[in-house]
Design brief:
about 270 residues; alpha+beta; Double Stranded RNA Binding Domain; 4 domains; two-stranded antiparallel sheet; 9 helices; 18 strands; extended; metal-binding; zinc
Length: about 270
Amino acid sequence: MEENKKTPGAQKPKGRERRHKCQQCDKYFTKSEGLKVHLRIHTGEKPYSCEECGTTFTTSSNLKKHQRIHTGEKPYSCEECGKAFTQSGHLKIHQVIHTGEKPYSCEECGKTFTTSSALKPHQRIHTGEEPYWCEWCGQTFARSSALKIHQHIHTGEKPYSCEECGKTFTTSYHHKKHHRIHTGENPYNCEECGKTFTSSHGLKKHLRIHTGEKPYWCEECGETFTASFRLQKHLRIHTGENPYNCEECGKTFTSSHGLKKHLRIHTGENP
C-alpha cells in the first residue's frame, strides 16, 4: 500500500485551535473575525476611512493610530527622557537609544540595527533588490517610504506645511529642518570647531573639511570632491554642458554662481 505523503510544514491544526482557514494562502485562524480581517490583504478592502484626510485602513485599530497624527495625541511616554509617541511600537524602538541595544546584525558587513524592520531594507544594499516601483515612471526603490516620497514629484503633493511662513514640503524631515530657520535651533554640533548645523547631513558635509574626506570622484580624470554638487559642476568641464544662460547677451555658464557674477556686468552691481 502506498504511504500518504504530507507536505513539509503544512501541519494540520490541532483540535479546535485553528478552525478557520484562508482559501487564498492556507493560513489558519482561531476566530472567524481574524480570518475576515486577514482576507482584506487579498481583496484590498479598506473599510475604515479618516475623516480628516481620507486615508483608508483595513482595521479600526490602524485608523485609530493614524488619527493621532491629526489630534496630536501621544499616549506612550518614555520614562527615561519624557518623549511621547503615538504608538507603543515607536516607543519600544525609541527606548533602544537609552539601552544602546542593537540585536539585529547584517551578515554581510556586520552593521547592527535596533529593529529587524531596519535591518531588512539595509540588506537590499548588498542584494541590489528594489521591490518598490513607481507606476508613473518605472523607477524602483529599496524602501516603500522612498517610493512614497518620490511619488510626490508626479502628484505635486506637499503635505507638510510650515505654520510660520506657509511654505510646504514633501517630507516631514524637510519640514522639520526648515522650521529651524524660524526657531534658530542648530542641534548638530561639530566637536572640532564648535560650528552648529540645522541637520545631521549639514554636519556630515562640514566634517569633511576636518577629515579631508572626498567621497565623490570623477571617472574621467580621477579628481575627488567633498560634495556631489561639486562633482556635478566639475563634470561639465568634460561634457561641455553650460546649463545657465544669460538672458541679456546669451552667454552660457557651467554654474549658477558663474552666471550671477557675470550678470553684474549688465546691472553694474559691485560684488
